[in-house]
Design brief:
By secondary structure, the protein is mainly α. It has nine helices and four strands. It has helices at 2-17, 31-34, 48-65, 70-78, 96-103, 105-111, 163-166, 172-179, 205-214; strands spanning 19-20, 23-24, 112-115, 192-195. A two-stranded antiparallel ribbon has the order 1-2. It has a two-stranded antiparallel sheet with strand order 3-4. The protein starts with a helix and ends in a 9-residue tail after the last helix.
Length: 223
Amino acid sequence: MKGTCEDIERLIRRFVWGTNEGTLSIHLISWDTAKQPIESGGLGFKNPHQQNRAFLMKIGFQLVTYIEALWVRVLKAKYRWGHRLPILIKRPSCSRLWTRLNNFWDEICDSANWNIGNGSQTSFWFDNWLGRNGRLAFNCLVDTMSPYAMVSDMTTASGEWDWPRLNPLLPTAILDQIDVVPPPQNRYNFDTLGWRWCDTRVFSTRSAYAYLLDTEGLPNDVV
């Protein structure tokens, strides 16, 4: 796949720069600059490596959201997928597609953001559910925490956030963000998964590509 992406990029460069008797013409700007978004001073050409990763992220995210789709059910049965959002999907013998997804599964997990309903399926500390803050375990102020606490466990019997319990656990900035989130209620539906890098929580290849450009220090190739 890496070789295919390089071939595609080579063809694009030849088309953009043009040729003169079989040789490339003079480049007025670097190709790295040309690949930058227009709003960043570039020409907006796509990076085939990152575009490929964005498409693979789409497949990976659909695995955890399109739970009734036939192709998702087949793959989950084949690879013995249990949890809605497993931490690991690596298997000793699998297809090339599954290997590619496994190579950056951590990114997909970090990009998934739980939309809170009744709060009973979302880990308070280890699932992404509070905007772009990531896992709250990284912000905990105490040495020990309850690893099995769900978001619903952090509310009172009357359905409000349990502030006497929360205040010693997290920084004020995080508590302020929790304060504007409606507490989970039993009458609400189950928690659902959304896309962290878009305000609407709906996946788009465009937002995945933008996210990958922001983290371009990561490896470009997916074996």
